[in-house]
Amino acid sequence: MGGWRGILESVLPSLAFLVLYTVTTDLVLSLAVSVGIAVVFTAIRLITRTPPAAAIGGLVATGAAAALALWTGRAEDNFVWGFVTNGAYGTAFLVSALVGWPLIGLIAGFLMGEGTAWRQDPRKRRVYFWLSLAWAGLFAARLAVQLPLYFAGDVTALGTLKLVMGLPLFAPLLAVTWLAARALYPRAPSKDEPAEQ
């Protein structure tokens, strides 16, 4: 997740918007500070020559959300881009699992260098199916909880729940996914361990 810097890059722009808008109800100021923080993080990545992809992605998403909210004049529209991405990711994970090509399996197969050979192993297919459904469930839960608040125009509750249902739910599910996928592959013996005869 990019360590502490990655966590700050993903949380601070939304947190700044939420706090400023709750305190001031000034949409332009709240969006300007939120986008400004994303710009600063991107600039730091570029100056320190660290991989900027995540920061640039966050900047684009923050900028697009802010542009929509400025265009409509509605603070709750700052969250629409998040609904679109949650819907897209959730649908992709669900459909991939239902058609027998779970995204978690495709990702793990690529990372483990086995391509799609995992599809011949019923255990791996089963684990990847359920993991992909779990990810689809996470994205669906975000929409189920947050969309009613969006339609009610409750920006403070919406922003708070976006933060609560973001990293605090994403990180544990990512850890479970990693542990479950890792358990499917035998550990290679280290140089200090004797090879089995």
Number of helices: 8
Low-pLDDT windows of residues: none
* Mass-distribution shape: globular
* Helix proportion range: over 70%
- Main β sheet profile: none
Oligomer: single chain
Strand percentage lies at under 5%
Number of domain modules? 2
Q: Could you report the average pLDDT, rounded to the nearest whole number?
A: 87
Q: Helix/strand/pairing class, anyone?
A: mainly alpha
- H and E string: HHHHHHHH
Tell me the span between the first and last alpha carbons: 40 Å
Fold topology:
Blueprint: H1 3-24, H2 27-47, H3 53-72, H4 80-98, H5 103-111, H6 122-152, H7 155-164, H8 167-183
Please provide a written account of the structure.
Keywords: Membrane, Transmembrane, Transmembrane helix. This is DUF3159 domain-containing protein. InterPro entries: UCP010219. By secondary structure, the protein is mainly α. The chain folds into two domains: 73 residues; 112 residues, no CATH class. Helix content is 76%, strand content 0%. Helix 1 packs antiparallel against helix 2. The radius of gyration is 20 Å and the shape is globular. The model has no long low-confidence stretch (mean pLDDT 87).
Summarize the structure.
With 197 residues, the chain is mostly helical.
Write a concise keyword list for the protein shown above.
single chain, 197 residues, 8 helices, mainly alpha, 2 domains, globular
